[in-house]
């Protein structure tokens, strides 16, 4: 008898994995705690958090045969547009001329993937909240919408149920399971910039907008309806500008007028948005092993990262891609082997991107506003232009390539050391264009890390 795969969680990763598994001819059931949100909103309609999709994500979508269906729902952003405190802006390209990351509404994206999984024959059970899992029996207990309980025993169980995974909770009672979680000091709130009265984008739609202010920042990504979804990142407490010090509308207005005045002018619904939208926390989780008794964790359930590299979803999609390669290689009759190979291959890479995501908060909120940082980026861009194969900026390795995250991390550390030395030159700001670029590159080559 053919084994059935049970997926817990119909988020972005569970939905894409269902497509892959169906395409391998497997029976797939997905259990999701939410109701079917596709019935509430049509694609692209209404406000929604948006995500930046980059190379690894596209590659996984292409292999699943769904890239062309997703593309019309995306908007390319070829760089960051930095907004300083005086209202001036400048543009920093993310990579080469034709390289971009793509803004897409999370809800619309999830709906496209679910529709595809369903069209391929996956069964989706909404309003099925996993309450408990017995890992040794692979027995799952659900709570349904009407409060009833339901039990299921699974052949193959995959937890794609996000950063507070119920399957991972069950793994925690297993011997030698390691789990680490950290809520960072900052939280976030979604805000909104509507289209202008004439129906146009209020800001340049080809950029991800950032208002970096040291310990806090605002970002904005474009939507298909010509609005922008903004995310305000603030410390919860301990600083003058923090969530704990915002008591009323006046405080909100004062912060926006002082630090984000050009954005403030574009946000007629700021006060209502601020009041109505929740303040959310940001978590990093790492755990191991990811598999036990033919059950596996994937996506955020295995490795939830803070959002500052825009890689959580892209990384989860890459998980699906790699898992599918292993299924292709080892077949569907030895899941323990496939899952074991998957966790061994993938864990060093997800550790690396979790760390990079943490580190990138400092770059996004602080460094990018520093003129010396801009010179540093120019030198790195020139190195890349002169020696495209030997020097790739870390951001490009992570965002525009499928180099293993762990390799990108190691090379990035070496480049950081070399660039720290280059930046010690007191004349670097004036002379950056005429440095001895060959000598800089030689430092990489002598280290053997090209
Ligand atoms: C503010 C913010 C911005 C981000 N921006 C980006 C970005 O630009 N680019 C990027 O690549 N990543 C980004 N990420 C990360 C990205 O959102 C996650 O990595 C991605 O959503 C993980 O997908 P997932 O399917 O593993 O988990 P989720 O998206 O969390 O999906 C899990 C699913 O499981 C369901 N579920 C949970 N518990 C249960 C249960 N007990 N029973 C049944 N179902 C359950 C949930 O309802 C949900 O549908 C961002 C994250 C945040 C917080």
UniProtKB/TrEMBL annotation:
Which residue numbers delimit the FAD-binding domain?
A: 8-328
Q: Which cofactor does it need?
A: FAD
Q: Report the catalytic activity.
A: L-kynurenine + NADPH + O2 + H(+) = 3-hydroxy-L-kynurenine + NADP(+) + H2O
Q: Which superkingdom heads the taxonomic lineage of this protein's source?
A: Bacteria
Q: Does the keyword Flavoprotein apply?
A: yes
Q: Which UniProt keywords apply?
A: FAD, Flavoprotein, Monooxygenase, NADP, Oxidoreductase, Pyridine nucleotide biosynthesis
Q: Which Gene3D superfamilies match?
A: FAD/NAD(P)-binding domain (3.50.50.60)
Entry's Gene Ontology molecular function annotations: FAD binding; kynurenine 3-monooxygenase activity
EC code: 1.14.13.9
Q: Which InterPro entries match?
A: FAD-bd, FAD/NAD-bd_sf, Kynurenine_monooxygenase
Q: Any keyword NADP? A: yes
Q: Which GO terms describe its biological process?
A: anthranilate metabolic process; kynurenine metabolic process; L-tryptophan catabolic process; NAD+ biosynthetic process; quinolinate biosynthetic process
Which SUPFAM superfamilies does the record associate with it?
Answer: FAD/NAD(P)-binding domain
Provide the top EC class. oxidoreductase
Pathway per the UniProt entry:
Cofactor biosynthesis; NAD(+) biosynthesis; quinolinate from L-kynurenine: step 1/3
Recorded family membership: Belongs to the aromatic-ring hydroxylase family. KMO subfamily.
Q: Describe the function of this protein.
A: Catalyzes the hydroxylation of L-kynurenine (L-Kyn) to form 3-hydroxy-L-kynurenine (L-3OHKyn). Required for synthesis of quinolinic acid.
* Name this protein carries in UniProt: Kynurenine 3-monooxygenase
Give the originating organism. Cyclobacterium amurskyense
Name the gene that codes for it.
Answer: kmo
